[in-house]
């Protein structure tokens, strides 16, 4: 009996296996004979688990790139896929990855089958999520390998993974360090945002990765912007298929995207942005800056100015946990403003973004296309606003030549607001904010300095003093790299080189610096090292870090003083700051100690006896130092006659005491003020802690979530005068053409505490 049932189950197992084999064989045949473009996933030659998962995720109809790329990729061909932003490229490569492994009967024991490389961590995470969604009914193992995660944990799981989604730097780290990481069985390599991964920033990393991968593999490249042919050669593609669905479209950007630009002087950019936010409170907005420090400064200032909408910020200098949390929060929020750098520019799919605002112009048209592509995704509408400096108007030519339609707008005079005074007050009150402002200033100038397109980005035409003033800074911070550039250029000129060559060399040096970094976040150091990299001491770094532009000058003076009289040397450098240099301490000839010459037996004996030796020394002279630091004999400072010239002794005593008393009173007043300031600070910290306990914490030093509501913490400190009144400003700008539909989203039921607060604020202020 038992044997009978065992036989039956054996039979049914082998029957099932045979059916599966047959199914796979049929699928293989369908794939190889398939050559039509179909509209629905259901009609593609896909396995049942994939079809079911797609259906469950509500993916029914294929987009253009999916129609044209999936069936070709299923045949194992190399692919170069290009389609506009938000057109569904992710599924176009994920479906073939899963299916091709499935048809090859890949199991967890077969090792690594597919590698998907993304330029940023957030994009890798998003791709991984989609992979999990559509591959959940398969039995493959998949892993996410990105910087900022637990390296050990990743390493221990590597050997068991069939599909890996990763960022280039972290992948190479594992390739170099993890003994159990074997890539020899790899079947497929996918480069998402291929042009970015193949460009200079990742060149060395990617080349090192490619050399470790088997040559016989399927390679798929996808991007919204074109990959240069010379870059492709590095991948040794096998007779690739070029699938470019929007090649003949009128525009390279989505058709349902309205694009505007305005010409804004540098000092007015933050005013304009703040005005824009205040007049678009109910919308979801992404704002791009060129550096992390600008993002932080704008975020810290704006949240204190309470625009009445949740504010968030995202950049590469935040901890990974914060980055992930903020990205998730912005995804789920209906209306919010996300201030960010270009780590958000590519691939990220935040739902229902209404506006993309570029406060700083992008480095090139490619970056522009990717940035604006964060809105108007997959059949939705969207709007984009670009701020150009008067000196950057040449960028419009670049956009035009790449088929980007953009329209000029002007802000209505009556709608202009200024937050300059508010920023000044904030920076005055909070040295940390001022320090951040100084860093933001330097970062911005540096970013313009580093940009390649010198016809558009002209660092020498930046109104730096006015810009510093507009940021609320008490003075213009020193821009050391520009000074270095000038001095380097003049040295090079002397050596027969032109200034242009000199600055080009500096740029290429900084390109090298970028190579090892993640995405575009590397250009964040405030100081540009000149073409020769110098080793900086701890003290140098400290001076560079704290109060740039204030201490830097102080330090220069210190240096001047310490080295005045020093033996001039060509090798003078910053490291010499802590090194004692030979300083001439020559005294007058007559005061010089006569050398004790040992020219007889007697003197030889004396030389061993300290006390006797003293009589050969000149008489000691008591010296004091005057205010200029000159040594003068003690008794020469004052004698009785000169002393009495200033009045009788008693009078002088009284006036001296009077002066001292005044000085003490003054010092006392200052002390009292300091104590008061400390008390205020304590109170503020206590209040912040209380708020933190209630879930409202947001610390300037923490890269955590932020919202407009955080500024409430400053209310009791008399910050009311900093709040700019909220007015209902419907028409913020004017276009020559009829008004564009701004795609206003109605307020939904607030879901989070921040939403509720922002809504309450708006209601109170009548927005
Ligand atoms: N066939 C489909 N049906 C419905 N929605 C889809 C389909 N394909 C993709 N989408 C959705 O469209 C959005 C954009 O897709 P995806 O992120 O893949 O675009 P992309 O072309 O990679 O954009 P980018 O160039 O910015 O990286 C996503 O929200 C995705 O879920």
From TrEMBL:
Primary subcellular site in the record, as a coarse category: nucleus
Segments of skewed composition (Basic and acidic residues): 8-20, 661-678
A GO term for molecular function: ATP binding
Motif (Q motif) on chain: 39-67
Residues of the Helicase C-terminal domain: 269-423
GO cellular component terms attached to this protein's record: nucleus; small-subunit processome
Gene Ontology biological process terms, A to Z: rRNA processing
TM region positions: none
SMART domains: DEXDc, DUF4217, HELICc
Reactions it catalyzes: ATP + H2O = ADP + phosphate + H(+)
Boundaries of every DEAD-box RNA helicase Q domain copy: 39-67
SUPFAM superfamilies for this protein: P-loop containing nucleoside triphosphate hydrolases
Residues covered by the Helicase ATP-binding domain: 70-244
Keyword entries, A-Z: ATP-binding, Helicase, Hydrolase, Nucleotide-binding, Nucleus, Ribosome biogenesis, RNA-binding, rRNA processing
Region (Disordered) location: 1-28, 492-533, 661-730
EC number: 3.6.4.13
InterPro entries: DEAD/DEAH_box_helicase_dom, Helicase_ATP-bd, Helicase_C-like, P-loop_NTPase, RNA-helicase_DEAD-box_CS, RNA_helicase_DEAD_Q_motif, SPB4-like_CTE
Places the protein is found: Nucleus, Nucleolus
Listed Acidic residues bias regions: 502-528
Record's function text: RNA helicase.
Domain notes: The Q motif is unique to and characteristic of the DEAD box family of RNA helicases and controls ATP binding and hydrolysis.
Family indicated by similarity: Belongs to the DEAD box helicase family.
Protein name according to UniProt: ATP-dependent RNA helicase
Source organism (scientific name): Schizosaccharomyces japonicus (strain yFS275 / FY16936)
Gene, per the UniProt record: hca4
């Amino acid at each position: 009996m038992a044997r009978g049932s065992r036989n039956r189950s054996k039979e049914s197992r082998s029957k099932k296996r045979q059916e599966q084999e047959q199914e796979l064989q049929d699928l293989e045949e369908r794939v190889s004979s398939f050559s039509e473009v179909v509209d629905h996933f259901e009609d593609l030659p896909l396995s049942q688990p994939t079809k079911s998962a797609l259906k469950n995720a509500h993916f029914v109809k294929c987009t253009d790139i999916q129609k044209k790329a999936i069936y070709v990729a299923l045949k194992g061909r190399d692919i170069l896929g290009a389609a506009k932003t938000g057109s569904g490229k992710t599924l176009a490569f994920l479906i073939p990855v899963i299916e091709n492994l499935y048809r090859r009967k890949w199991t967890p024991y077969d090792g690594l089958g597919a590698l998907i490389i993304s330029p940023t961590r957030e994009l890798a995470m998003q791709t991984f999520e989609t992979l999990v969604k559509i591959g959940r009914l398969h039995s493959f193992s998949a892993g996410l390998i990105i910087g900022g995660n637990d390296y050990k944990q990743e390493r221990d799981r590597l050997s068991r993974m069939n599909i890996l989604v990763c960022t280039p730097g972290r992948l190479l780290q594992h390739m170099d360090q993890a003994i159990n990481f074997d890539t020899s069985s790899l079947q497929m390599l996918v480069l998402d945002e291929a042009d970015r991964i193949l460009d200079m920033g990742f060149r060395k990393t990617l080349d090192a990765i490619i050399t470790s991968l088997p040559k016989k593999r399927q390679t798929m490249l996808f991007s919204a912007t074109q990959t240069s042919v010379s870059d492709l050669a590095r991948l040794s593609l096998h007779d690739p298929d070029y699938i470019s669905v929007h090649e003949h479209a009128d525009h390279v950007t989505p058709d349902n995207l309205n694009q505007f630009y305005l010409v804004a002087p540098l000092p007015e950019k933050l005013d304009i942005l703040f005005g824009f936010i205040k007049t678009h409170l109910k919308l979801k907005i992404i704002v791009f800056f060129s550096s992390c420090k600008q993002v932080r400064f704008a975020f810290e200032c704006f949240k204190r100015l309470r625009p009445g909408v949740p504010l968030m910020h995202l950049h590469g200098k935040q901890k990974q946990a914060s980055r992930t949390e903020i990205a998730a929060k912005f995804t789920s929020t209906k209306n919010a403003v996300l201030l960010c750098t270009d780590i958000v520019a590519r691939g990220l799919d935040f739902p229902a973004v209404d506006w993309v605002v570029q406060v700083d112009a992008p480095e090139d048209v490619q970056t522009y296309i990717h940035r604006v592509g964060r809105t108007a995704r997959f059949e939705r509408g969207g709007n984009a606003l670009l701020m150009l400096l008067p000196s950057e108007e040449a960028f419009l030519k670049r956009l035009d030549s790449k088929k980007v339609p953009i329209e000029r707008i002007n802000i209505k005079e009556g709608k202009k607001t200024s937050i300059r005074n508010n920023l000044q007050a904030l920076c005055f009150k909070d040295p940390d904010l001022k320090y951040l402002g100084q860093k933001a200033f330097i970062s911005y100038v540096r970013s313009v300095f580093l940009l390649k397109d010198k016809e558009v980005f002209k660092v020498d035409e930046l109104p730096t003093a006015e810009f510093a003033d507009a940021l609320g800074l008490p003075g213009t911070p020193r821009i050391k790299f520009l000074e270095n550039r000038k001095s380097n250029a003049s040295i090079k000129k002397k050596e027969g080189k032109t200034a242009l060559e000199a600055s080009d060399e500096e740029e290429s040096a900084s390109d090298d610096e970028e190579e090892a970094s993640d995405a575009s976040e590397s250009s964040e150091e405030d100081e540009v090292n000149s073409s020769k990299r110098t080793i900086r001491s701890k003290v140098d770094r400290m001076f560079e870090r704290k109060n740039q532009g204030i201490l830097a000058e102080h330090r220069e003076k210190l240096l001047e003083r310490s080295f005045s009289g020093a033996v001039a040397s060509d090798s003078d450098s910053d490291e010499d700051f802590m090194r004692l240099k030979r300083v001439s301490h020559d005294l007058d000839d007559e005061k010089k100690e006569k050398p004790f010459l040992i020219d007889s037996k007697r003197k030889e004996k004396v030389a061993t006896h300290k006390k006797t030796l003293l009589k050969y020394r000149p008489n000691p002279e008591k010296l004091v130092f005057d205010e200029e630091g000159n040594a003068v004999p003690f008794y020469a400072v004052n004698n009785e006659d000169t002393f009495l010239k200033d009045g009788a002794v008693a009078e002088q005593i009284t006036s001296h005491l009077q002066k001292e008393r005044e000085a003490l009173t003054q010092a006392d007043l200052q002390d009292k003020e300091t104590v008061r300031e400390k008390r205020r600070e304590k109170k503020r910290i206590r209040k912040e802690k209380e708020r933190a306990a209630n879930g409202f914490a947001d610390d300037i030093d923490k890269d955590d979530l932020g919202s407009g509501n955080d500024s409430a913490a400053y209310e009791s400190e008399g910050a009311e005068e900093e709040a700019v009144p909220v007015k209902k400003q419907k028409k913020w700008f004017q276009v020559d053409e009829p008004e564009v539909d701004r795609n206003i989203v109605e307020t939904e039921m607030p879901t989070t505490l921040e939403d509720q607060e922002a809504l309450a604020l708006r209601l109170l202020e009548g927005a």
